[in-house]
Write a sequence for this structure.
């Protein structure tokens, strides 16, 4: 009975511990502004002050549907996308909401999307950022399994849609 009680307590505490690490807000020592730091999700980007740049960019962006028609959606749904961004970065504030709009249009499974927010040093403690060789943000990394197919770094060469199609082989 005592073991069951301990296991029950662990299951009650564990979700709170994990949730505390998601959408963590810190004060950036360089700018004295609040930034998201570490792992985050759409809710983090659409809450508080972050939504002041996320929603307007998301709503105003017009998806280039003609380019996306060439993307194999079944294959895309097997891919994983990691986005390393800075909520303090104007390029991230422009490109990440656009990426969300495109992924929503493509019905990309959000469970296959990982967002990592970094500080001005392009780091986020307790994440895999050091292994990802991040130089500029946002960096959008598209993988299938353990194989990296390609990256969109800072801003697309043509457009997010065209760059995604190029990475996915179309």
């Amino acid at each position: 009975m005592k073991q069951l009680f301990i296991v029950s307590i662990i299951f009650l505490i564990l979700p709170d511990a994990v949730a505390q690490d998601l959408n963590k807000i810190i004060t950036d020592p360089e700018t004295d502004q609040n930034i998201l730091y570490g792992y985050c999700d759409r809710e983090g980007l659409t809450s508080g002050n972050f939504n002041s740049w996320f929603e307007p960019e998301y709503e105003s962006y017009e998806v280039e549907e003609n380019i996306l028609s060439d993307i194999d959606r079944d294959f895309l749904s097997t891919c994983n996308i990691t986005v390393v961004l800075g909520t303090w970065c104007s390029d991230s504030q422009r490109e990440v909401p656009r990426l969300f709009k495109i992924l929503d249009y493509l019905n990309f499974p959000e469970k296959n999307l990982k967002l990592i927010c970094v500080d001005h040093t392009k780091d986020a403690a307790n994440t895999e950022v050091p292994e990802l060789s991040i130089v500029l943000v946002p960096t959008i990394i598209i993988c299938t399994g353990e194989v990296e197919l390609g990256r969109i770094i800072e801003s697309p060469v043509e457009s997010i849609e065209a760059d995604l199609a190029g990475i996915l082989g179309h």
Summary: The longest strand covers residues 147-153. Helices lie at 2-21, 42-45, 51-60, 65-68, 73-76, 90-105, 160-167.
